[in-house]
UniProtKB/TrEMBL annotation:
One Pfam short name: STAS
SUPFAM superfamilies xref list: SpoIIaa-like (SSF52091)
PANTHER family on file: ANTI-SIGMA FACTOR ANTAGONIST TM_1081-RELATED, ANTI-SIGMA FACTOR ANTAGONIST TM_1081-RELATED-RELATED
STAS domain residues: 1-110
NCBIfam families assigned: ant_ant_sig
Family: Belongs to the anti-sigma-factor antagonist family.
Top-level division of the source organism's lineage: Bacteria
Protein name: Anti-sigma factor antagonist
Amino acid sequence: MQLAFDTRPGGEVVTPQGRLTMVSARAFREQVSAHIQANTGSVIVIDLSEVSFIDSSGLGALVACLKTARQAGGDLRLAAPSEQVSMILTMTNLDRVLKPRPTVEESFGD
């Protein structure tokens, strides 16, 4: 899985590409957590538009990153999830905790 990091007004955008699964979740969590620690107090938006599939390990990595962001005085938000990712978030009720927004721009609006 590849990650792109982009600084924008209001925070940071992380764009993972591919599948967020057991195989890639650990590296994803470590890279995003390191980025959060380097940008304490920032809003981090995970742009899921290029994630084609997520499993329970990927969900766990997102929750771990949310915890890390909040402990660092910031927040983590999700943007533009695919249909599959949205379905998994809804089925697990994580859409209530992570509250995905349709676009990256809307994620910075709160």
